[in-house]
């Protein structure tokens, strides 16, 4: 059963070594993410699952001890999913996708050692009708499950955004922020996947998996942070 969730964005710029001189711009967002993970720790789960958007090569499960890196962003920095001492031998062959690498970095900053950790790369193109059942399966895997849900909103808030400007982006992000802040399962389940794809909102499928996992759990939500400093919607929220 799902007992808590933390929702965080997944830009590699959250990692100060990647952001370099721009790092202070996201200090508030980093702090909100760490506060959200604190709620997960307080829930004392038996199992923590980190969900993050991934392409077709990155989808699937990753065990505790899986390694990610930020070499693709020009930084020679590695992260481990869970405690480093849990890595055995040469470790898994597959490297964490970027979203899960950011999640692993956040957990390392929060000194997470409360329960076993597993990563799940969720295909951004996963159809909306399949997401709730995937979430229900995750929630049923242990008596007390917590989720760290990574994902970004639209990437079309300004003309300098990765997806350029789209007038629909602000309204889409506002609806996502309301749904995440209220733990509104029907609203998340109803997100338009074609619109989300058009706005390059990487978190859509992960949020809909979360909605499925939370069915019957009676969780309430709290929005900790909402911003779009680079024309991309970022949200930090907790469900408990």
Write a brief structural summary:
The protein is an alpha/beta fold. The chain has helices spanning 16-19, 27-42, 98-109, 131-139, 169-182, 185-189, 193-198, 204-213, and strands at residues 2-8, 47-54, 60-62, 67-69, 78-80, 117-123, 145-150, 221-227, 234-239.
Explain what the structure shows.
- The structure is a single chain.
- The protein has 240 residues and is of the alpha/beta class.
- It has a single domain (2-239), classed as LigB-like (Protocatechuate 4,5-dioxygenase, Chain B, 3-Layer(aba) Sandwich).
- It is built from eight helices and nine strands.
- The chain has helices at residues 16-19, 27-42, 98-109, 131-139, 169-182, 185-189, 193-198, 204-213, and strands at 2-8, 47-54, 60-62, 67-69, 78-80, 117-123, 145-150, 221-227, 234-239.
- The protein has a seven-stranded mixed beta sheet, with helices on both faces. A two-stranded antiparallel ribbon has the order 4-5.
- A hairpin with a 6-residue loop joins β8 and β9 (234-239).
- α4 (131-139) crosses α8.
- The longest helix is centred in the N-terminal third of the chain and has 16 residues, at 27-42.
- The two termini are 12 Å apart.
Element pattern in H and E: EHHEEEEHEHEHHHHEE
Name the CATH superfamily classification: LigB-like
- Tally of individual helices: 8
Give the second-level CATH assignment, the architecture.
3-Layer(aba) Sandwich
Strand order of the largest sheet: 3-6-2-7-1-9-8
Our estimate of the beta-strand percent is 15-25%
Helix content: 25-40%
**Spatial gap, N to C terminus:** 12 Å
- Average pLDDT, rounded to a whole number, is 94
**Compute the gyration radius: what is it?**
16 Å
- The fold-level CATH name is Protocatechuate 4,5-dioxygenase, Chain B
Structural class given helices, strands, pairing?
alpha/beta
Give the low-confidence spans. 85-91
Let me know the number of strands.
9
């Amino acid at each position: 059963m799902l007992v808590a969730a933390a929702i965080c964005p997944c830009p590699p710029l959250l990692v100060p070594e990647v952001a370099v001189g721009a790092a202070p711009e996201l200090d508030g967002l980093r702090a909100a993410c760490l506060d959200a993970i604190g709620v997960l720790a307080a829930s004392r789960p038996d199992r923590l699952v980190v969900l993050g958007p991934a392409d077709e090569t990155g989808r699937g499960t990753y065990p505790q001890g899986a390694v990610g890196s930020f070499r693709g962003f020009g930084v020679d920095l590695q992260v481990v999913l869970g405690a480093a001492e849990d890595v055995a031998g040469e470790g898994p062959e597959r490297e964490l996708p970027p979203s899960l690498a950011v999640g692993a970095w956040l957990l390392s900053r929060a000194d997470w050692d409360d329960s076993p950790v597993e990563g799940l790369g969720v295909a951004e193109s996963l159809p909306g009708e399949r997401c709730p059942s995937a979430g229900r399966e995750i929630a049923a895997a242990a008596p007390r499950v917590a989720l760290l849900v990574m994902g970004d909103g639209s990437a079309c808030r300004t003309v300098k955004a990765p997806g350029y400007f789209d007038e629909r982006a602000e309204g889409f992000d506002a609806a996502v922020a309301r749904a995440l802040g209220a733990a509104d399962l029907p609203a998340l389940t109803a997100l338009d996947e074609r619109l989300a794809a058009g706005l390059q909102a990487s978190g859509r499928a992960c949020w809909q998996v979360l909605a499925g996992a939370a069915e019957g759990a009676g969780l309430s939500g709290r929005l900790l942070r909402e911003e779009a400093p680079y024309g991309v919607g970022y949200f930090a929220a907790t469900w408990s």
